[in-house]
Each structure stands twice: as C-alpha cells, then as structure tokens.
Amino acid sequence: MIRLEDKYALSFLKEDDIASLTPALQTADGYIRNRNGAGNDFTGWIDLPVNYDKEEFARIKAAAKRICETSDALIVIGIGGSYLGAKAAIDFLRSPNYNSIKKDTPDIYFTGNSFSGDDLKEVLDACEGKRVSVNVISKSGTTTESALAFRFIRSELEKRYSREELKERIYCTTDKARGALKNFADAEGYETFVIPDDIGGRFSVLTAVGLLPIAVAGCDIDGLMQGAAAMREQCFADGLNNVAYRYAVLRNAFYNQGKRIEILASYEGAFRSMAEWWKQLYGESEGKDGKGIFPASVAFSTDLHSLGQFIQDGSRTMFETVVRQEKPVNTLTVPFDELNTDTLNYLAGMTMNEINDHAMTGTLLAHLDGGVPNLMLTYDSRCEYTLGEMVYFFELACAASGYILGVNPFDQPGVEDYKRNMFALLGKPGYESQKEALENKMKL
Amino acid sequence: MIRLEDKYALSFLKEDDIASLTPALQTADGYIRNRNGAGNDFTGWIDLPVNYDKEEFARIKAAAKRICETSDALIVIGIGGSYLGAKAAIDFLRSPNYNSIKKDTPDIYFTGNSFSGDDLKEVLDACEGKRVSVNVISKSGTTTESALAFRFIRSELEKRYSREELKERIYCTTDKARGALKNFADAEGYETFVIPDDIGGRFSVLTAVGLLPIAVAGCDIDGLMQGAAAMREQCFADGLNNVAYRYAVLRNAFYNQGKRIEILASYEGAFRSMAEWWKQLYGESEGKDGKGIFPASVAFSTDLHSLGQFIQDGSRTMFETVVRQEKPVNTLTVPFDELNTDTLNYLAGMTMNEINDHAMTGTLLAHLDGGVPNLMLTYDSRCEYTLGEMVYFFELACAASGYILGVNPFDQPGVEDYKRNMFALLGKPGYESQKEALENKMKL
Predict the structure, then answer these.
(1) Residue B257 sits in which domain range?
(2) Which one from B305, B338, B416, B441 is the annotated catalytic residue?
(3) What is the complex's ipTM, to 2 decimals?
C-alpha cells in the first residue's frame, strides 16, 4: 500500500495548522461521499474501480489483442487528459523509452496534442512502412488539435488501407451517444469506447481513454483496476484519517503558510511521465480563482545538479513530495574494481537500490536543513497493482485538496480562454467580432 | 537573430521598474566585460565561440566520424551539465525521439545521471548486440553517479572487446591534466577531450562536453559555433541595449514585483529538452541566498490542457517567456475534407505553422487578460546556427541576470549539501561522524 511519511515535514507546522483544517476536511469528505460538492457531475471516478462496464472492459482487451496481432504501431490521438494518463502508465510499467526497447507489443505514438507540424510529421514518418492502427480519443470529436491530426492521419491511412480494412484499424474513444466523432465512427463502422459523462479528462486514465493504449502496451489492466479498488476500499474504510486525505491536508497547511510551489521528486526515470500526469491533475484542479499550489517536478539525482541548487538554497516558496520506490525491477550490485581509480570500492557489493535510497535520504535531510518541508510517499514497485493504487490515491487526494482549498476541483474554465482567442484569430465562423477586438489589442 | 518582444509585458511594469535597474545592469556589464565579478574564474564561456581550441575541435570531428563508422550506439555517461546541453541540442536539431527515428548515425543513450538501477539496466539492455562506443564526461572522474555507471558499462564492454579495441571505443571528456578519469584514460590509452577549468557544467555545451555527442548525432558543430559567435558579437556591439541584457533586466523587474516563477513556454516538441537545459542554467545560477525565480517549463498546446488552467487563473506568482519558432522544418497543409464531420474545413489550406502561430498569439492574449506578463522570444528555425545563437543568448542573459539579482551566477554551493549527506549515509571513508549525526536526525 502507498505510505505517506510526514516526519520530515511536521517540524514546519504547528499543531493548529493541521487541526484548523479539520472542518474543511470534513466538508470535503461529505462532498466526496455524498457527491454534492461543486462539480459533483464529475465524480464518476470515485466508484469507477468497482463500478466499471465489464462488457466494455472485455472489448478493450479484445481490441488490444487484435491491435497487437495486426499492427507494428498504434497511433494514439488525444490531448491533455486524453493521453497523459496512458503515457504515464506505459512509461512507468514498461519503459520511459518504450518505443526503443525490444518488445513484442506495438510501438505507441502519442500525437494530436499540439499544432506543431514537425511533431506530427515525425509520427507520420515513424509509421512509414509499418502496419498501423489508430486510437482517436475525443469526447466531442472537434477538439482542434486532435481532430486536425486525425485528418492528416486518416488521409494517410486511406492511401494504404481499404475502407473495410480501416474498420479493423481505427478505434474511437468518445461520447457514448453524441458528437462528431461518435457519428463518424458509427457511419464508418469503427469500434467505439466510451468517455463517461461523469469523468473529466484528467481523471480518466482508468476508463477506456487510458485502458486501451495501456493494454496494447502489454500491461495487465485487471491488475490496475484491482489496485485502484483496493486503495478505494482502504481510504473509505479509514475515513478522515486515510492516507489521501492526509496528503490533501498537509499540502493545504503548507499552502496556508505561503508555500506556492510543490515539487514532486522521484528517483526513477520511469516515474517522469507520472509526474506530468500529476501536474495536470493538480494544476488543472486547483489552479483557479487566483489560488493554488504550482505543481513542478524533478527527477533526482540528475536534477540535484539542476534545480537541486534552487531547492536547497533559492527563494523559500516550496515544499517537496518525494516519491520513493521500494523495490526495483532489476537488482544491480556494484562490482569490485581492483584498480579503484574512481575510489568507489567502498560501494562494492551494495545494490544500486540501496545507494539510491541513501541518496534520497541524504537529499531529504539536506533540503530539510535548507528549510524545505519534505513529505515522503512510498510505493511498492513498478507493477500494475501499485500503479492502480497510486492513481486512485492521487485522484482522491486531489478532490479533497481542491475542496479544502475552496475551489471546484473538477472544472477548468480557464482552458476556454485560449481556445476562444485562437478560434477568433483562426477565423472560425461565429468569432468575427472577437477577431477584430483581438487584432486591436495586438497593435497595442 | 533572436528577437525579444516585450509589448505583452510592459503594461505590467512602470517606467521606473526598468530604469531603476540600470545601475545594476551597468555593474553586471562591467563584471562580464572585465571578468571581475563574483565567480570570475568561470567566465571562459564568454569568449569561447571565438576562442576555442581549433586542434581539439578537429579531433572532436574526427572522433565523431570514427564513432559513427564503428558503432550502432554511443553511451554518454554524465550528470547535470555533462549531458543536458548535448541532449537538448540533439533533441532540438534532430528529433526529441532521436533513438527511434530512421537515421544513419548511432543511437545515443545518456546514462550515469541517476542511481536508478532500472534506468542503467535499460541502457545496458538497449546496447545488447550492438556495436558500442562510450563517451564518459566528468571533470574529476569521481562523481558518484557517473563513475558508478562507468564501472558497470566498462565491465560489460571488457567482456566484448579487447583492451586494444577499447582504445577505439572509449572517449573521456575530463580535466586537461589531473584527476581520476584523466589518469585512467592516459594509462589505458583512451583519447581525451578537455573540460576547461574556467567553464562550469551548465555553461559547457559548446565545449567538448556537448560537442562530441552532438557531432556524433550528425549535427554541424561549426554552424553551432558560428551562431554563438554571431550572437556574441551582436550583443557586445549593442552594449547595454543588447537583447540578452534586455531579457535579464525584464525578468529581474518581474522578480522585484514579487513574481517567483518563470514559465518557459514553447510550441514545439523539439524544444522540450532545451527547456530542461534552461532550467538548470537559470535554476542553478540564480537559486541561492534565498533568492531567485523558480524556472518551470511547458509545452503548448498540450499543456494548455494541463498547467494552462493554472497559468490562466491560479495563484498570480508568475510570468511567461514564450519561445516562438519562425520557420518549421516541414510545411503541412490542412487537407480539405468533403464530409467535414470535424467542422474544421475553415482551416483547410492553412499550414500547421500558421495555426500554431495563431494558437500562440491567442494564448498569449488570454494569459495577458489573466494577469500574466508575457515575453516573446523568436528564433529562426531548428538549425545549428540558430541553436548557437540561442545558447549564447541564454548564457549571457543568465550571467547578467544573476549579477543584477546580486548573486554569484557561477557557483552552486547547495549542490554539495546532498552529496555530503549521501557520502555519510553510504559510509564513505572520512564521513563517519556525520553519519552518526544524520542517523540521529532520522530518528527525530
């Protein structure tokens, strides 16, 4: 189970800093249990690990099997929550360099998440000469980035495959009933999977959004759901004292002290993309109404030779949450070297994991001395069950934390602002008057 | 040439916010020109673009050619500044997925930058069955992360190659005369390249540290130096009004207003690793004495569906520097689609780059409305010359900015703190008393 240790953080807090948050936590807990807080239409993720559509789940596994059999590459088209979770899971479970390792599952390319023609062209080039399947993920089917990429990729695939063949190669994860993508998929006969109405993008990794690409990568999605279900059960059994709420309360206590940055630090390259997923989850859930803790991440020990200096000794505006992996996949033991020119024989016989652990503790104590509170989060290993636990832990903590902060953790009103401006500048029909206003602003 | 536009930032500043920094800028400029400020022993990067060792430069090119001819993979062993610059350059110039694109240059694996056994094992596995060369980069040769990785990799290579063969496969970038790695290389007959005494790790990308891996990736290192030299000449010709100093002054003006986070935003996947290099450069140079702007980065538009919400509407503690690429490598034109189910025909005939540019401007205006000042930095294209300009621009601006802030931009005293603790916990001879003190602390 996920463990949270706060002994390297508590000295920065007074008893009352935590106790005074209890009423807000109780309210948050009520909102979560009774689904009656702000954004309550988007709380489907709470029961998802035990309440998911088993028929669809089986279809996801079957589709993944088919894709693996018929494809050298899967292109996943989606932006934000429509790919960050899947990428995080695949990097964590398989490899942060998944596409370049030796494996018997397809390469996976994430695209449709920017307007960069160079980014898109790379994916098109990478798939040349390969047998390709596509998973396009969009609730509406009109999200500009993803829909554009789908246009390019479809027109490419239509040169290679017949309409009939494409039915076996294009999979749409979208609204259950409506929208441009759903209509198109039905008309063409593509298999569809559902983005539930009550689960927002950043909470969607355990829906078809994440599960299909994760399954194609050869991961055990049953284990993922079991881990999430176990964490759910544990948290609700532990009530207000559960580990997710504890994390939510502590980060709010630091926020109330004036900390404005949380740094998620890990010591495993495989965790890097998890941190990107976490940044979206927390940044988008809490960064509103002029509030919120800015989520940043580092990969240690390399970033100790980068942002490490800042954390040790720069502006004092941060706290750290250190993610610790208990068991490595591989046990490497430092070899003895007769020459010992590098003077490292004092480490011979030690495992890399032991050394990594000491580096972590040493760093933690150093940052503590530098005035940075450190929370420590331990997970077991890079396996599906652990990942399921971690996903649910971070989601539940995020909901509670947002409610304690006093925001709606499930909306993202600010995301519309750039879209509106962009549509106007691109000349989208209906945005004419806004275009003129913007162009005047640009003249300043 | 790099252009800096401040019209989306100036409305947040009063005339005096900038004018009042002129004396500090004059002082900084004097320190830089006369090499008499704090850390002046580490200002070798200033004249490097015109003053580099031409004989070594030719040897680097020859070594790169040899590595390309004899190797399927190059393993680069180094931490912090010993790999971030090379990785940034290769990702920017070739591809952020360099190892998985089709190419006629070797794969390049960066390792020795963490204690994760899993990270190291991945590189060992990836190189199985491949013809391998190694570039180990360490001033002293005793940096724990890198030296440990070198131990593992050497013991692996010794199984495959004779001592004679290894002379053609191991290249050491290290101190010119002293240290464990230099001694070892000389004893074994490995070719060595120099980490100059007067250039710190984070300023070292245009030395052999960066140049050898960059050249192996097939990039034109002459172009890189020419771009840097051109930027150097331009900046010193423009005096106090140069573009790098302007950036330095503006970011200090925002810092003085209470902004504590700078977000470097780009719209090209190829720029992601450049942002990591930038984070080290600025974070390590400025984050000290309780001061500094925390450097963070985003890749738009995808992160508009992640940290975008926070930037638009969360805690108001940040300003943004938007990096704009003028010319794409590939021009992709949006195809017309008769069905138009995605309703995007209004974009048909437009290039992705035009759309990307509108997305950028739309976002910039939205963030402006959200109260976030935006600086805009335009570079020409993903080519060596441009990259050279950019490297020099950021380095010079960083030195000036640090001096304006009142810190030594060239030291990193905080990096020693974690090392000291780590050595103690690992039982390194000579750290016995500190070990006991730390273990007591851990009991708390």
Answers:
(1) 3-34+226-405
(2) B305
(3) 0.96
